[in-house]
């Protein structure tokens, strides 16, 4: 997603560096705009280094305007975030002024705008500021409540800028809310209404003894995100979850399992009459041949032990081999040769579609795929290929369901 991050004058301006980093890490494109006041607190170069784009700060700079004029810039983002938003900026926005780049952009845009106010506690509680906030809220601006605590001026009270993590999550929530109000969402909801989707998510745990198991790092977030978005679009969703710590999305029927064999039994009991089966679970390929009933004891005279493993059923391949099978979507979690291995699984397991994702550690040390809030899927069918840029798992889920709807419509013609 494209985010225009506007920074206004205030001691909290330095916190917006962390906010920029979070947006970039989450796979978003960020254009920073600074007011003259903001530049008194922090150098534009710091934002440029993090966002990878020169900061915009002037309405009248020919060179800046030559790249992208201010009207074009007002149309560019999916969302405008003003953090920190000073008392002066709140007042100017309320009046509809257009005396610098930021206020002009706000007047010239129809994109959602989120404000993260930051100021002295008395300035915040002043009737003039509160009236400005009330008017802006009424006009559709989302104004975050400032945090409470010790302030830079030494006073204690409400007026601190909310933490970057909180602004980041609020921005994502708002992006999703606005995505759901547009025509594309309504068209997608018309497609999915009443369709049945079976989804597996999370890891499986394969018992060694009553207290130990073989597992993996899947958190279930990817599969749960698909279940949640599909249910919001009106699909009837059955979610078979391995051992995860996630709440059940609204209107989703959830069945909890632990091992691959239990997941297989649950899928066998539910795969019929489904339109789509999505296998997002990280199913263990092997289980312990003979789990023992009592806790295994260390053998004092031995420095090693051997566990015999046997193959688990391949659940997604089994569904794909059934006569009246649903449309079958697998996932491929790979640390290398991602697309080639995914392509191979698509063919070998006879799937209709596969979602490839790189897992493990990126070159910069960041963990990928497993237990992350964002992901970057490549959606592959026998004749289509779509690489999604990194974004929140809920947005990946939305793009996946959109791609899937096109594929199903195409195949039913
Ligand atoms: O849960 P998260 O923390 O959000 O992480 C998401 C994820 C990385 C787990 C997810 O995006 C993902 O890639 N899931 C599939 C992981 C996996 O097991 O991939 P695989 O390449 O080993 O398996 C290929 C396909 O076969 C998968 O659809 C898998 O569900 C299925 N499979 C595998 C083995 C088996 N015995 N039965 C299966 O059905």
UniProtKB/TrEMBL annotation:
Keywords: Decarboxylase, Flavoprotein, FMN, Ligase, Lyase, Magnesium, Metal-binding, Multifunctional enzyme. In the C-terminal section; belongs to the PPC synthetase family. In the N-terminal section; belongs to the HFCD (homo-oligomeric flavin containing Cys decarboxylase) superfamily. GO terms for cellular component: phosphopantothenoylcysteine decarboxylase complex. Binds 1 FMN per subunit. CTP binds at residues 285, 295, 313-316, 331, 345, 349. PANTHER family: HOMO-OLIGOMERIC FLAVIN CONTAINING CYS DECARBOXYLASE FAMILY, PHOSPHOPANTOTHENOYLCYSTEINE DECARBOXYLASE. Signal peptide: none annotated. The gene is coaBC. Residues 197-413 are annotated as: Phosphopantothenate--cysteine ligase. Residues 1-174 form the Flavoprotein domain. Its EC number is 4.1.1.36, 6.3.2.5. This is Coenzyme A biosynthesis bifunctional protein CoaBC. SUPFAM superfamilies: CoaB-like, Homo-oligomeric flavin-containing Cys decarboxylases, HFCD. Residues 1-196 are annotated as: Phosphopantothenoylcysteine decarboxylase. GO terms for biological process: coenzyme A biosynthetic process; pantothenate catabolic process. Pathway: Cofactor biosynthesis; coenzyme A biosynthesis; CoA from (R)-pantothenate: step 2/5; Cofactor biosynthesis; coenzyme A biosynthesis; CoA from (R)-pantothenate: step 3/5. One of its GO terms (molecular function) is phosphopantothenate--cysteine ligase activity. It catalyses: N-[(R)-4-phosphopantothenoyl]-L-cysteine + H(+) = (R)-4'-phosphopantetheine + CO2; (R)-4'-phosphopantothenate + L-cysteine + CTP = N-[(R)-4-phosphopantothenoyl]-L-cysteine + CMP + diphosphate + H(+). Catalyzes two steps in the biosynthesis of coenzyme A. In the first step cysteine is conjugated to 4'-phosphopantothenate to form 4-phosphopantothenoylcysteine, in the latter compound is decarboxylated to form 4'-phosphopantotheine. Catalyzes two sequential steps in the biosynthesis of coenzyme A. In the first step cysteine is conjugated to 4'-phosphopantothenate to form 4-phosphopantothenoylcysteine. In the second step the latter compound is decarboxylated to form 4'-phosphopantotheine. The active site is at 153 (proton donor). The lineage of its organism: Bacteria, Pseudomonadati, Pseudomonadota, Gammaproteobacteria, Thiotrichales. Its cofactor is Mg(2+); FMN. The keyword Nucleotide-binding does not apply. Residues 192-405 form the DNA/pantothenate metabolism flavoprotein C-terminal domain.
């Amino acid at each position: 997603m494209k985010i225009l991050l506007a920074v206004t004058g205030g001691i909290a301006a330095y916190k917006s560096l962390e906010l920029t980093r979070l947006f970039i890490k989450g796979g978003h494109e960020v254009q920073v705009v600074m007011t003259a006041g903001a530049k008194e607190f922090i150098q534009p170069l710091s934002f440029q280094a993090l966002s990878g784009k020169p900061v915009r700060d002037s309405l009248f700079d020919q060179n800046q305007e030559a790249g992208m004029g201010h009207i074009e810039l007002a149309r560019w983002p999916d969302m405008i975030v003003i953090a920190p938003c000073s008392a002066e900026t709140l007042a100017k926005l309320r009046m509809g002024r257009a005396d610098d780049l930021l206020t002009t952009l706000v007047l010239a845009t129809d994109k959602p705008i989120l404000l993260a106010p930051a100021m002295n506690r008395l300035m915040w509680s002043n009737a003039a500021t509160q009236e400005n906030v009330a008017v802006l809220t009424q006009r559709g601006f989302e104004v975050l409540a400032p945090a409470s605590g010790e302030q830079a001026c030494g006073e204690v009270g409400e007026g601190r800028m909310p933490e970057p993590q909180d602004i980041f999550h609020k921005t994502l929530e708002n992006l999703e809310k606005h995505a759901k109000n547009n025509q594309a969402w309504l068209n997608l909801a018309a497609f999915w209404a009443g369709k049945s989707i079976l989804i597996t998510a999370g890891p499986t745990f394969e018992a060694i003894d009553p207290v130990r198991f073989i597992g993996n790092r899947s958190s279930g977030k990817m599969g749960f995100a698909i279940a949640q978005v599909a249910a919001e679009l009106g699909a009837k969703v059955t979610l078979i979850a391995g051992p995860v710590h996630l709440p059940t999305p609204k209107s989703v029927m959830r069945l909890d399992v632990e091992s691959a064999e239990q997941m297989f039994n649950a899928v066998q009991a539910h795969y019929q009459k489904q339109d789509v089966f999505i296998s997002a679970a990280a199913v263990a390929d092997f289980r312990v041949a003979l789990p023992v009933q009592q806790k295994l004891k260390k053998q004092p005279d031995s420095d090693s032990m051997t566990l015999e493993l046997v193959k688990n059923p391949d659940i997604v391949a089994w569904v794909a081999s059934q006569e009246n099978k649903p449309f079958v979507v697998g996932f491929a979690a790979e640390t290398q040769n991602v697309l080639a291995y995914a392509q191979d699984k698509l063919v070998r397991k006879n799937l209709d579609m596969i979602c490839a994702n790189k897992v493990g550690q990126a070159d910069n040390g960041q963990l990928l795929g497993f237990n992350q809030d964002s992901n970057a899927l490549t959606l592959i069918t026998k004749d289509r290929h779509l690489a999604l840029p990194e974004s929140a798992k809920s947005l990946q889920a939305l793009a996946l369901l959109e791609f899937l709807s096109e594929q199903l419509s195409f195949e039913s013609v």
